[in-house]
Structures are given as structure tokens and as C-alpha cells.
From TrEMBL:
<keyword id="KW-0675">Receptor</keyword>
<keyword id="KW-0804">Transcription</keyword>
<dbReference type="GO" id="GO:0000122">
    <property type="term" value="P:negative regulation of transcription by RNA polymerase II"/>
</dbReference>
<feature type="domain" description="Nuclear receptor">
    <location>
        <begin position="57"/>
        <end position="134"/>
    </location>
</feature>
<dbReference type="Pfam" id="PF00104">
    <property type="entry name" value="Hormone_recep"/>
</dbReference>
<dbReference type="InterPro" id="IPR013088">
    <property type="entry name" value="Znf_NHR/GATA"/>
</dbReference>
<keyword id="KW-0539">Nucleus</keyword>
<dbReference type="InterPro" id="IPR001628">
    <property type="entry name" value="Znf_hrmn_rcpt"/>
</dbReference>
<feature type="coiled-coil region">
    <location>
        <begin position="137"/>
        <end position="164"/>
    </location>
</feature>
<dbReference type="InterPro" id="IPR001728">
    <property type="entry name" value="ThyrH_rcpt"/>
</dbReference>
<dbReference type="GO" id="GO:0004879">
    <property type="term" value="F:nuclear receptor activity"/>
</dbReference>
<dbReference type="Pfam" id="PF00105">
    <property type="entry name" value="zf-C4"/>
</dbReference>
<keyword id="KW-0805">Transcription regulation</keyword>
<keyword id="KW-0175">Coiled coil</keyword>
<keyword id="KW-0863">Zinc-finger</keyword>
<dbReference type="GO" id="GO:0030154">
    <property type="term" value="P:cell differentiation"/>
</dbReference>
<dbReference type="InterPro" id="IPR050234">
    <property type="entry name" value="Nuclear_hormone_rcpt_NR1"/>
</dbReference>
């Protein structure tokens, strides 16, 4: 059924789509997507940190050098602190001796000439031997410091998570409607793992890679061979998948308020992206398969030989990366809504309105992510980066379709398939 009829639009459509994919996220997407990968550390401070409680240029009570703080109960420099600590930890003081009967004057210049007199002065000014930790106590203290640091870090993280805004009442209603739209238009819903049949893939994509050459094939100009029989069956699966994407869009709040021409441009622009997302979230790491049409599991080579070529690799790679996110139906639905409302599609008339619609979905999406409290660091910006991946898949498929259109018989392309993907700009 033609797309214009399916949308119940009374327009005479030329259906010329100019898909503008810059392969980067729209400028209005949150700046969180742009993560800084460089961190510059420049220090213009002195070698030792001087506490604020010290007077300017306060001297060490042992040698008179510039003090750096309280060490073992006295104001000392780093040198005398280290000397005193090493002496106690290694029990060196019994071996110290003085050539001048212990009468040396200890200052910044002479402090390294007589260890005994320097140590005696440390004791005389009040440095406490009992405050010097042995190796075991020092390691225990270090572990305690690290544990406290980690504890504070976790507490800060929990505090930050709890302080992040969660969906408002109106956003919850929007989220509910988007989620229901996805569930009602997604083949087999979220129970695909229980319902899929691995053997069904062999029935449709029955020509394995090694069997290519024993069935009709077409070599596209990009070098990939297409199993024409498998491609024919693949297009039969794609057609109802396109219909479900259209149904999803029609159920979304705000979409029906847009002009008919803009609706068609948005649908044609996002169709492959949404279908790819729906397939990618059904990637099974154990069998390394994607589930199509709710219950058919296909391997990478089967999908590639069925006509998608390198696009197959991109979808499988996306499935692998999305597996760690453990997305629920709502997150998948909101991601689809963000893809649909992309205001940078070429030919749109209500760009600002579409941009505001996408921003509304994005804000509700971000607040829902806050509500879910994922354990993955930087979950939200990492997830938004998948929008870029999906846009790249859409562009790659547009290029692939042009090659196939030239090399494959026209009768293999269903009308709806042609109507959605023909005349796309690459």
C-alpha cells in the first residue's frame, strides 16, 4: 500500500526525499554528547603546599629552613620531617654519633653534617616519636584513607543521582504514550527471545555464504554479491516492518500536528534507523544473531547476503554495543521518538516546531534515565551517541540502496519499499 494512502493523506505526492545526513547529531542535542577527551593539568604552585595557619616564611624549629606545616607535633620543614621519620622507622638513632661531644649547632647549612645532634634537637623541640607509624601501621592508614575516599566518592555519586530531576507528571504521560506506541507496533513486543525460532532463518535465508553461486546472484557496484532469492524474501519482511514504523509515528503525540509533507519526510528519513534499532536491541550474544520480524534469528552473513551488505555489519556492531546498556521498552521507544523528530532532514518546512518536539522528547528521556539510575558511568551521553551510529546506518543504507537499485531487477522491490527508500540523498 503506498505510504501516502497509508497515512490517509489527501495530497498528490511526488515523494521526492532529499535526506540530509551530516552524520553528526543535530546542533540542538544536549552538549553532554560532546564529551571532552582531554584534560589539561597545569600547576603554578610551589613545590610544597603551605597551610594557611602558618605565618609567612615561618621557620622550621629544628634547622630554621622554611616550614611546611605541623609534623609530629612541631612546625618543621620537609627535610627535618623526613629525617625524623626515617630515623624512627628504621631505628637508626642508636647508631648515630657526634665528633664534637653532641654540641653541634643545627641550622639549614649544618643539619646534614651531624645526625645525632639533629635528632637530639628534634626531640628537644618536641617532635613525638610515638606519632611515627611503622610500615604496617602506615599501610593500614593508607588503606583507611583510600577506603574513606572511595566511600565519599560513592556517597557523592548517590547524592548526585538522587538530586537529578526525574520526570514531571506531564512527562510521565508523554513517556507512557510513547512506550505504548512502541509496544503496539513492535513485532512480538519484548518477548522475542521466547518466541523466536532459530530454524526459521534457514527457511528464508537458506543460502549460506558458502552456497553463494549456486543460486541467482547480483553483483552490486560496491563489490558485494546479493542472493536474489534471499533478497526477495528479505523485502517481504521489511515491508510490514516499514508499516509498523509508520504506525508508531502516527501514535506519537505532536507528530500528527505537523504538515503532511513534513510527516512523510520525517518518516522516510528515520525508517531505516528505527528498523535498525529495533533489530539491534534484539541481538543475542550467545548465538550472535539478530531477531527479525519478532521470531526469525539471522546471522551476520545471512543478513549481508540478503541485500544489506556492509549495513549488516553496522547493525550487528550496534547490537553488540547496545547489549551492555540493557535498555527497556521505554528507552527504546524514546530513542525512536528522538530519531523521528530530527529537524535537520532536508526539505522540512516546520523546522523550529520539529526541533521543539525533539527537545521535549529529549528532556523527558533524560529525566527517565535519571529515574532508572543506571550503573554505567555517563550513561546518558553514551546512549545519545548511539543516535549518531543510527544516522550513519541510515546514510550507509541509502548508498547501498542506490547500488542495488541499479543491479537488481526492479520487480524485486515492493512498492512501499521503493517509495520509502528511493531518491534519497547520500
Amino acid at each position: 500500500m503506498p505510504l501516502c494512502v497509508y497515512l490517509s493523506l489527501s495530497l498528490s505526492l511526488s515523494l521526492s526525499l532529499t535526506l540530509s545526513l551530516s552524520l553528526s547529531l543535530p546542533l540542538h542535542l544536549p552538549l553532554l554528547v560532546s564529551l571532552s577527551l582531554t584534560h589539561s593539568l597545569t600547576h603554578s604552585i610551589s613545590r610544597w603546599y603551605i597551610p594557611s595557619y602558618l605565618e609567612k616564611d615561618e621557620p622550621c624549629v629544628v634547622c630554621g629552613d622554611k616550614a611546611t606545616g605541623y609534623h609530629y607535633r612541631c612546625i618543621t620543614c620537609e627535610g627535618c620531617k623526613g629525617f625524623f621519620r626515617r630515623t624512627i622507622q628504621k631505628n637508626l638513632h642508636p647508631s648515630y654519633s657526634c665528633k664534637y661531644d653532641g654540641c653541634c649547632i643545627i641550622d639549614k647549612i649544618t643539619r646534614n653534617q651531624c645526625q645525632l645532634c639533629r635528632f637530639k634537637k628534634c626531640i628537644a623541640v618536641g617532635m613525638a616519636m610515638d606519632l611515627v607509624l611503622d610500615e604496617a601501621k602506615r599501610m593500614a592508614k593508607r588503606r583507611l584513607i583510600e577506603e574513606n575516599r572511595e566511600k565519599r566518592k560513592k556517597e557523592e555519586m548517590v547524592k548526585t543521582l538522587h538530586n537529578r530531576p526525574e520526570p514531571t507528571g506531564s512527562e510521565w504521560e508523554l513517556i507512557r504514550m510513547v512506550t505504548e506506541a512502541h509496544r503496539h507496533t513492535n513485532a512480538q513486543g519484548s518477548h522475542w527471545k521466547q518466541k523466536r525460532k532459530h530454524s526459521s532463518a534457514a527457511g528464508v535465508f537458506k543460502h549460506c555464504p558458502e552456497d553463494i553461486g549456486q543460486s541467482p546472484v547480483a553483483a552490486t557496484s560496491d563489490g558485494d554479491k546479493v542472493d536474489l532469492e534471499a533478497f526477495s524474501e528479505f523485502t517481504k519482511i521489511i515491508t510490514p516492518a516499514i508499516t509498523r514504523v509508520v504506525d508508531f509515528a502516527k501514535k506519537l503525540p505532536m507528530f500528527s500536528e505537523l504538515p503532511c509533507e513534513d510527516q512523510i519526510i520525517l518518516l522516510k528519513g528515520c525508517c531505516m534507523e528505527i528498523m535498525s534499532l529495533r533489530a539491534a536491541v534484539r541481538y543475542d550474544p550467545e548465538s550472535e544473531t539478530l531477531t527479525l520480524s519478532g521470531e526469525m534469528a539471522v546471522k551476520r552473513e545471512q543478513l549481508k547476503n540478503g541485500g544489506l551488505g556492509v549495513v549488516s555489519d553496522a547493525i550487528f556492531d550496534l547490537g553488540k554495543s547496545l547489549a551492555q546498556f540493557n535498555l527497556d521498552d521505554t528507552e527504546v521507544a524514546l530513542l525512536q521518538a528522538v530519531l523521528l523528530m530530527s529537524s535537520d532532514r532536508s526539505g522540512l518546512t516546520c523546522v523550529e516546531k520539529i526541533e521543539k518536539c525533539q527537545e521535549t522528547y529529549l528532556l523527558a528521556f533524560e529525566h527517565y534515565i535519571n529515574y532508572r539510575k543506571h550503573n554505567i558511568p555517563h550513561f546518558w551521553p553514551k546512549l545519545l551517541m548511539k543516535v549518531t551510529d543510527l544516522r550513519m546506518i541510515g546514510a550507509c543504507h541509502a548508498s547501498r540502496f542506490l547500488h542495488m537499485k541499479v543491479e537488481c531487477p526492479t520487480e524485486l522491490f515492493p512498492p512501499l519499499f521503493l517509495e520509502v527508500f528511493e531518491d534519497q540523498e547520500v
